[in-house]
Amino acid sequence: MREKPIIYTYGNALIKSAPLLPLLKQHNINCVIDCRTNSNTPNGITTPVNELKEELRQQKIAYIPFFNHFGFIPSIARNRQGSIIYSQAIAQPNFLQGIERINNGIEKGFTICIIDNQRETYKSKRFLLIGKYLQNTYRIIHLHENGHYFSQEKIEQKNQRKEEERKQKNKHRQNIGSNGEEIAALYLARNNYHIIEHNWNLHRGCELDIIAMKNNRLHFIEVKTRTSDKYGEPQTAINHQKMRNILKAIQTYRFQHYLTNTEYQIDSIAIIYRSEQDYDLKHFLNIRPNGEACDDCQTFHKRPTL
Length: 306
Hints:
alpha/beta, six-stranded mixed sheet, 12 strands, 27% strand, elongated
């Protein structure tokens, strides 16, 4: 099977010849394609184009600006957050023209290095967009200043492992949170609270973990669970923004359920969870929305039983 031609990439907003030229020589690169956003400006955060072109010319390396092909991604190919939509970006005429020019350059015998602004490869357009599009036709090698280099496939595998690890951590955190809410519910039932709702959700960020009634008084209870107090006790996670969201959710819940005349308070249950039989629980009663101290704090250990 014929070996795929290689296309190299390199990323840095501030392109300096000292680290770049040795890399180009090491890999016999004779053509630099520059798709940096600011590469067509004489000043600013990048090395001036004329200066870079002259240094490359002295080394008999061609310089081709590709900002219009790969540097600029139109709004039609971005979502509301500004992130690139891959399927839209690769369908743009300018992008496809750039790909065609690269193919022609490879056929003419050029060894190409694509450069962009992003130093971190896995966040860059040369990896997420250009490399992804070209990897079936070419071997994509991403160069780093320290002389190390990684293939498109290696970085994708590394990112996939990181994503799996992130999912596992999130799943673990969710399990810990679920265990904490279970412990909190058992504790409340043991102490004569009647639980009305679990995880009542107004919208993202505005959720009430437990709504309970005791002595004709509503208790809106925020549950925070951690496996240790290494990064602070769980109750410290209720910051100003979180309290604003809680108050907004409470206001809506009381209005929707015709409970505006019922007395209520905000509580917090903070749990250090080590196992089902080994935990610390603190119940902070009647937290002040302005951040002042609560009425009382009750402390329990181990897992309560009904």
